[in-house]
TrEMBL record, chain A:
Keywords: Membrane, Transmembrane, Transmembrane helix. The chain crosses the membrane at residues 45-63, 83-100, 106-123, 135-153. Residues 6-153 form the DUF1468 domain. The keyword Membrane applies. It comes from the Bacteria. This is Tripartite tricarboxylate transporter TctB family protein.
TrEMBL record, chain B:
Pfam families: TctA (PF01970). The chain crosses the membrane at residues 12-34, 41-67, 79-97, 109-131, 143-162, 169-188, 200-224, 262-282, 324-345, 357-380, 392-409, 416-449, 469-488. It comes from the Bacteria. PANTHER family: TRICARBOXYLIC TRANSPORT PROTEIN. The keyword Transmembrane helix applies. It comes from Jannaschia donghaensis. InterPro entries: DUF112_TM. Keywords: Membrane, Transmembrane, Transmembrane helix. This is Tripartite tricarboxylate transporter TctA family protein. Residues 18-440 form the DUF112 domain. The keyword Transmembrane applies.
């Protein structure tokens, strides 16, 4: 089964769960006065779930002719091994790490670590460039966001003041 | 109309707003040139900046400037390094890159800039003529018609997705609508589908979703496939002049393609992309035999056609946004989200309630085009230096900007985890050729769609509103037709191809 059908199957499952929630779990807690309304909070989701199930099924059953031919420059998922999947996964992990440490380690530290680690991962070894560039970028963006845009960003780790 | 133009001029010419246009164009060109960052990602990154400006006219002027700049920057990278950042500039690289290889990069950039300028300006004139009359018709619509109109818009986007992709586009639209029901709606003060997660109470952030749908997969593609960001820095750019004869030969092409591009751009769906490919094809077909040979090998006409068409289409895509409040493309969907965040609801009332926003946007389109031609073009040789940044620095920075865009919009670190999660899903969806713009458009329209649906249900006391209002029924029938027709046709085609007894 091709990837697009697997995706359709996944969406179908999502729509089934969503539809179950809309049809069977939402109406019970509705206050009586709202039950007299012609439209309930669950009305629109019900319609959506039914439509989504129908469309997902039509893709799953191949009702519409579709061919997979990646254009030039597109990533062909059937030859995923030829691409730098490891690096991509590392980047995703790095982004999760960044999200988790942004508050506790502070903006400056986590940003510098993120940028340096990212460059390192891609094969950059010129430390004398990597570190100043990321320090400058982290400092500059912090200044822009905090002072110009006025959005609070904790610059330093939690144990060093605000 | 004259009154409106004057009002727009008054707003747009103020020093602050002029600065917004110029700054927006420069930022847009600069970032748009980077491989992998298209107009959609750039606008999504700029939204927090725009929102913090506070004044909706200024914010929209900034974003519109960024939009033009990004399109222009995308053309520049198509011409110089054959790396179109967005689908709508792919056709530009057909003739632009050969020209650059022949050492005529400067000439190609000038032609592209002039074509973009004319396309954008003619588009803006047409927008000025069309939009007010369309808006006055749209004022007659009730919520039932609005609901139906949005359904038509959403199904048109699916229908124009190309053969074999209608179902996929439709599925993505529905998924976007489903995502939009997460959180607390305006009509019912009870959270829905939050699964008890507090961070979902206010719904999914649209900037997060926009970043996850466009910027993140593109960055992942850059990581996965090093060839995507391969370049030699673009080489030397010199001699930006074109001759009088060349100008005369491309003038009719620009005129035709600007009008054609605008009309295609007004239709919801992949406006600018279709417009640029169609413009290229049309011009190749009507060119004299001798010049047809030139196409694909560095024809100036072949460069001017897609450039003027895609800019005119980009302007055209503002028509449904400003008059109906229905975005027809991913970019205008993001702009709509930004406007809602700024407490402006685009739609027919915009022209009545806040005409200064409407007109200042249109005037800023002219100014933006002038800025691109006068200021950006001479600066291009310097801006193009950014293409020489090695990918080891470029990619971490692109990802960092993506993260920052999502973070400062919501000031919530959980948003970043959602960004990564959605981003992974979007990358997988892109692998399988699922279009992602319909998801975002569905997500942004979801709330309005449900509100209008509920309102008409409540006014008519049930689903009967569809039957009682002929216009609503007609529009809905049209929507169904739009979706079913391409699928049915491709099935018939397939049935015709199959041998007997199969």
């Amino acid at each position: 089964m091709a990837l697009d059908r697997w995706i359709a199957l996944t969406v179908l499952l999502v729509a089934l769960v969503y539809g179950y929630a809309a049809f069977f779990t939402m109406d019970a807690s509705l206050p009586p006065f709202m039950q007299r309304n012609p439209v309930w909070p669950s009305t629109f989701p019900k319609v959506l779930s039914v439509l989504t199930i129908l469309v997902a099924l039509s893709i799953l059953l191949g009702l519409e002719k579709s061919e997979y031919n990646p254009g030039e420059g597109d990533v062909d998922y059937r030859r995923l091994g030829d691409y730098k999947v490891g690096q991509a996964v590392f980047f995703l992990a790095l982004m999760v790490l960044y999200a988790l440490t942004l508050r506790s380690a502070g903006f400056l530290v986590s940003t510098v670590v993120f940028l340096v680690a990212g460059s390192f991962l891609l094969g950059e070894r010129r430390w004398h460039l990597m570190i100043p560039v990321s320090l400058l970028a982290a400092g500059g963006i912090w200044y822009l966001v905090q002072e110009v845009l006025g959005i609070f960003l904790r610059p330093l780790p939690f144990f060093m003041g605000v | 109309m004259l009154e409106g133009i004057l009002m727009g001029l008054n707003t747009a010419i103020s020093p602050g707003n002029l600065l917004m246009v110029i700054g927006g164009c420069l930022i847009g060109t600069f970032i748009g040139m980077l491989p992998g960052l298209g107009p959609m990602s750039i606008i999504a990154i700029m939204i927090p900046v725009a929102i913090s400006i506070g004044d909706p006219s200024a914010a929209l002027i900034l974003l519109a400037g960024v939009y033009y700049g990004a399109i222009f920057g995308g053309s520049t990278s198509s011409i110089l390094i054959n790396a179109p950042g967005v689908a709508s500039t792919v056709a530009t690289s057909f003739d632009g890159y050969p020209l650059a290889r022949q050492g005529k990069a400067g000439k190609a950039l000038t032609v592209a800039a002039i074509a973009s300028f004319c396309g954008g300006t003619i588009g803006a004139v047409l927008l000025m003529i069309f939009a007010p009359s369309l808006a006055s018709v749209a004022l007659l619509f009730h919520s039932a018609e609005y609901f139906a109109l949005m359904v038509v818009g959403l199904s048109a986007i699916a229908a124009f997705a190309g053969s074999g992709n209608v179902g996929k586009a439709l599925l993505m639209t529905l998924l976007g609508l489903i995502l939009s029901t997460v959180g607390e709606g305006a009509l019912f003060n009870a959270p829905r589908f939050t699964m008890g997660i507090l961070d979902l109470q206010s719904g999914i952030g649209f900037i997060t979703l926009a970043m996850a749908m466009f910027a993140l997969p593109e960055a992942m593609y850059l990581v996965l496939d090093p060839r995507r960001s391969d370049n030699d820095g673009g080489g030397e750019i010199k001699d930006l002049r074109i001759t009088r004869a060349e100008a005369r030969s491309i003038a009719p092409v620009i005129g035709r393609q600007s009008i054609q591009g605008f009309l295609i751009g007004v239709l919801p769906g992949a406006g600018a992309t279709i417009a640029s490919f169609l413009g290229y094809a049309v011009e190749r077909n009507i060119a004299p035999k001798a010049e047809q040979e030139e196409f694909g090998k560095g024809s100036l006409k072949g460069l001017a056609a897609p450039e003027s068409a895609n800019n005119a289409a980009a302007t055209g895509s503002f028509v449904p946004l400003l008059t109906l409040g229905i975005p027809g493309s991913g970019t205008t969907a993001i702009l709509l989200g930004a406007l809602i965040a700024l407490n402006v609801t685009p739609g027919p009332r915009l022209l009545v309630d806040e005409p200064q926003i409407f007109w200042s946007v249109i005037i800023s389109m002219y100014i933006g085009n002038v800025v691109l031609l006068v200021l950006n073009l001479p600066l291009i040789p310097y801006i193009a230096k950014v293409l020489a940044v090695p990918r080891t620095f470029l990619i971490p920075f692109i990802l960092f900007f993506t993260l920052m865009g999502a973070y400062i919009g919501q000031n919530n670190a959980t948003e970043l985890l959602m960004l990564v999660g959605f981003g992974i899903c979007a990358t997988i969806l892109r692998f399988a050729n699922y279009p992602l713009a319909p998801l975002l458009i569905g997500f942004i329209l979801g709330q309005m769609l449900e509100d209008n649906f509920s309102r008409s249900m409540q006014l008519e006391g049930g689903i009967g509103f569809i039957l009682e209002r002929p216009m609503t029924m007609g529009l809905l029938a049209f929507a169904v037709l739009l979706v079913v027709l391409p699928a049915w046709r491709s099935r018939r085609q397939r049935a015709g191809e199959m041998p007997e007894g199969d």
